Amino acid sequence: MNDPLPIGGDVTGRTRPGSPPAQLNKCAVCPKLCRHACPAVRASGDESHVPSVKATTWRRISNGLQAPTPEALRSLFACTDCNAATRYCKHDIEPGQLLAGGRARAQAEGMAPAALEGLVVNLERTGNPFGEQHAERASNRKGVIYFPGCATLEHTPEVVEAACRLLEAAGQLYDLVTDTCSGAPALYAGRPDLAPDWPLPPKTTVISSCPGAVTTLRRRFTGLRSLHLTSYLASRGNLALARSLTETHLFHDPCHLARHQADPTAPRLLLDQVIAEGARLELPDHGHETPCSGGGGLLPLVFPKLARRMANERIDAALETGGPESTLVTACPSCHRQLSHGGRIRVVDLTQLLARAIR
Predict the structure, then answer these.
(1) Which residues of the chain have pLDDT under 50?
(2) How wide is the angle at C-alpha 322 spanned by C-alphas 266 and 43, nearest 5°?
(3) Which of these, 15, 100, 116, 128, has the minimum number of CB atoms within 10 Å of its CB?
(4) Residue 118, CB-side half-sphere exposure with 13 Å CA sphere
(5) Angle at the Cα of 190 (from 188 to 195), degrees rounded to 5?
């Protein structure tokens, strides 16, 4: 079994300075220098959503200085784990991870948001946050696994076939695994006990279409080599693709791919292989500065209006930049779902564009 990363570590494997209590203290007394970066705060205007305010609430509750209440604990779920605030944090603190203990406390106190009850029941019953059961797990290990992720199977199942075609075109042997979960939904819900183990040999490579799954696997199991599909394909550099698309395309960076995994380059390298020169436009904020679409951290379940508002802000930016006939490309099932709401703009997963262009 792989050794889980201790609390206070990050997806790169390095240990962040200070224990979780020390980080909580630093975040709680900070003068809110990251406030402007938090997409939940920008979209809601709610002061209780400011990262340092949430840290203060959790610190006071954990130290017995404030009684836990459903309202106070609910505010700890107003975070998508997008890592935007961390870019401006002097102490390199990730609010999404810092508040995990508070979410677990909410569950332990029986004060977790009611909107999470169905998800928890599904995890207890099937191990899948959506209640689905997928049985695909090959017995002949090839050392490389393609793991679509629960959100991919639920929101963009067509991506799975496209991803398999791309891996085969790249000459990569792999095993398809769909019968488990990265553990992200359980962790975000405050039920780490429901996050499944991954008893895989060390140095197994896991390729996923879900950036959030990659981040979670890196956090939980340092022995695995976890990569997003676009990062893997770009590093291989051996796809033969037809460059035939001339329409305007814009790329929305998934938070986990651009910030947690620090790879905004790979999807652009691949996208530029299938669209004509000059047909790709950049959104006003992109790459490491990409705004969150509101799909992470279970925000759409607990704060659906806030999540929709965040998505609409990104759609507005895309329409203003590329116009109503443009195509918004992303590489994350949660982003795809968020940006597709209302059908205001055409949204496509990068994997599908690439698969259609295989020569």
Answers:
(1) 1-18, 139-140
(2) 80
(3) 15
(4) 7
(5) 75
